[in-house]
Amino acid sequence: MSKAAEIDLVSVSKIYGATTAVDAISLKIPAGTYCCLLGPSGCGKTSTLRMIAGHESVSIGDIRLGGTVVTDLPPARRGTAMMFQSYALFPHLSLIDNVAFSLKMKGVDKDARRAKALEMLQLMQMEGYAERRPAQLSGGQQQRVALARALITDPEALLLDEPLSALDPFLKIRMRAELKKLQTTLGISFVHVTHSQEEAMALADLVVVMNDGRIEQAATPREVFEKPATAFVARFMGDHNVVSGRASAAADGLNEFQVPGGGTFAATGISVEAGAPVDAAIRTDHVRIGEAAVRGLGFTGTVANIEYRGASVKLSVDGAGVSDFTAIVDDKSFYAQPVAVGDAVPLHWDAEDAIILGRPFN
Amino acid sequence: MAVAEQIITAPLTKPRLRRAPLSLASFASYLQAIPLTLILAFFLLVPILFLLVVSFWDYDFARMYPGFITRNYAEVLGSWVTWKTYLNTLKFAVIVWAIALFIGFWVAYFLAFHVRSAAMQTVLFLICTVPFLTSNIIRMISWIPVLGRNGLINTTLVNAGIIPQPIEWLLYSDFAVVLAMVHLYTLFMVTPIFNTLMRIDKSLIEAARDAGASAWQIMWNVILPLAKPGIAIGTIFVVTLVMADFSTVQVMSGGQSASVALMMKNQMSLLQYPSAAANAIVLLVLVLLLVAAILRVVDIRKEL
After folding, report:
1. Hey, which of A56, A71, A222, B169 has its CA 20 to 30 A from A64?
2. How far apart, in whole angstroms, are the C-alpha atoms of residue B40 and residue B34?
3. Dist. CA A217–CA A234, nearest whole Å
């Protein structure tokens, strides 16, 4: 069954009239990868998926699947299968006929296609519902049927357009685990479009963060989270404070930079020439209360808000030209030295928790 | 709510019969339904009841005699003229239905799937309805200068030397009747089909294409099955309208063709009201049977 193929996008663009939805993106998705296209709505992730599927024409560039250029092939001849956001099950057909649909189109005779469809339904543990109509199913069941229908064509890659967005939170987590398990068993590539960073982190081998029609970063979830490439990625992934300023000096692997009208900060990473604009990401959960040992790895600000979160406490601090700086402090150390709104509080962090972010190439 | 309250209070209080207080609110929904009920009763049920009663009356050249005789029905069902007329009307119904369905489906399909912007859809749909701003009779009569012996088509063809003499069957023929009926009634097919097609989720068509369906396979396996309720409603409209039509048949056939409604009109002009009433009842039963047959085949509840 495992005939996974590499997906290769070569500077692919999608242009609708005057707007560029996808702007010359290049991406290699290795065979058998769970890839998540992640980004806010309108970032071009769905257009990208639909271009891979063949439901949207490619304006410029090429798409290769396992070495074959599929740019101009119709969807069914690409070796991909798509699962639609609303599942797009045919309301007038029973589940078994829904799953057997593509075989019927190929002219497979009735008994053979129904036998194969029942096999797929069994794989999804839906064989008991074979004669029901889609409207009689819950969201999670509909998704399983949609998966069965997509997988019956034995695709080299499965394309999923926001597959979990229609489910309630509890089901979301369950179906997400099922998707991951399915991908591991089948060994084919899954390309999954989502706007939830949590979903992407939980599922993906390769997270592709998109913004404004471009790829901001394509890396493993851990790398995307720990070393966000750009300020956009750091903000979108969450759990990072982004501090912007202008570079002033570099010493001991630390780049110092000045926040306009505020303090001096330092961060590790690529060196930036003096005077150039700098964005740095500081992990919110690695910020601690206390004076900084090294200049630039901390500041003193006024507490604007305190949120109790059980295991941790979230402080919002303004100061040194930075507003709404978030510090997630564990409850034990917070209650050892509690602070109140309006108090001045010193914050500090380690050098490796503050990293210089790349600038999106303009 | 009330049930929930009962469940909660049940263990605490002794079970006792509690009636909902007789208030205006409990009658409100009945009050709201009264106007329509009255209108339907007075203008639909009562006339049909009269029709039924009168159909059993006796009559001569001058007046009707209340009674209960079945002669009117015996005459209607026993005469081969009636049977021929009914068959002729059914023939018109079938031909007009088939042509209206063909044209109506493709017009609706074009509007729903090929016209991209919603504004353009509305504009084109309104254009379809513009002829309906004039009366049926005017639209029908306007065919006469087009189809007549010295009409637009014949003169053009003769002058162009394509035919030596005017085509006789263009006007005052079954062809003319069918043409005019298709013209009059196709919109009644377009509208319901357009409605059902607009409700088809576009991603279903993409899903079908993803599964390797060709354009015709998508049409046959996805769009047509989902358009069935609209086709059924359009069919009911067209069939009932054609079955009840007398003016089109009279004007466009030049009196050479007959329809059931035309037959009734003639009976009424001869003051044979009971006979016409019996005919009307037979026609009503026939049309109701046709509608029932359509509803048995297609479930249209989702559309209502």
Report:
1. A222
2. 10
3. 10
Indicate the range of A142-151, A316-325, B214-223, B225-234 predicted with least confidence: A316-325
**pLDDT confidence tier of residue B16, bands split at 50, 70 and 90:** low
Architecture of domain B80-303: Orthogonal Bundle (1.10)
HSE-CB for B153 with a 13 A CA cutoff: 12
CA-CA distance, B200 to B197, in Å (whole number)? Answer: 5
**3-class secondary-structure state, position B278:** helix
Q: pLDDT tens for residues B199-233?
A: 998 899 999 998 888 899 999 999 999 999 999 99
CA distance B122 to chain A (A): 23
User: Residue B3, by phi and psi: left (phi above 0), alpha (psi -120 to 50) or beta?
Assistant: alpha
Q: Tell me the shortest Cα–Cα distance from A81 to chain B, in angstroms.
A: 7
More confident residue, B132 or A190: A190
Closest CA to A182 of A34, A356, A316, A42: A34
Cβ atoms of B252 and B143 within 8 Å: the answer is yes
Verify whether the Cβ–Cβ distance A76 to B217 is below 8 Å: no
Distances in Å between the alpha carbon of B247 and those of A69, A209, A254, B184, B255? 64, 69, 95, 12, 10
Helix (H) or strand (E) holding A31: none
Output the DSSP codes for A95-122.
HHHHHTHHHHHHT--HHHHHHHHHHHHH
Q: Contacts of residue A53 in chain B, CB cutoff 8 Å? A: 210
For residues A29 and A206, is the Cβ–Cβ distance under 8 A?
A: yes
Q: Tell me: the pLDDT tens digits for B25-66?
A: 778 888 889 999 999 999 999 999 999 999 998 888 778 888
ipTM of the complex: 0.79
Residue B179: how many CB atoms within 10 A of its CB? 21
Cα-atom radius of gyration of chain B, to the nearest Å? 26
Best of B116, B202, B210, B303 to substitute, by most chain A Cβ atoms within 10 angstroms, is B210
Contact A270, A253 (CB under 8 A): no
Token pair, residue A260, equals: 């306009």
Q: How far apart are CA B258 and CA B249, in angstroms?
A: 7
Give CA–CA dist B146/B185, Å, rounded: 19
Helix count and strand count (H, E) for chain B: 16, 2
The helices-and-strands tally (H runs, E runs) of chain A is 10, 20
pLDDT bucket at A293, cuts 50 / 70 / 90: confident
Under a CB-based contact definition with an 8 Å cutoff, are residues A96 and A118 in contact?
Answer: yes
Give A81-114 pLDDT, tens digit per residue. Answer: 999 888 899 998 999 999 999 999 888 888 999 9
The predicted pLDDT at position B109 comes to 94
CA distances from residue A246 to A228, A243, A259, A265, A361 in whole angstroms, order as listed: 19, 10, 7, 10, 17
Kindly give the pairing relationship between strand A7-16 and strand A60-65. Answer: antiparallel
Q: Residue A174 and residue A191: Cα distance in Å, rounded? A: 19
Nearest-angstrom CA–CA distance, A284 and A326: 6
Q: What are phi and psi of B58, to 5 degrees?
A: -95, 160
Of A55, A88, A105, the CB nearest to B201: A88
- Does the pTM surpass 0.90? The reply is no
Give B-chain residues touching A84 at CB under 8 angstroms. 203, 206-207
Where are chain B's structural domains?
A: 80-303
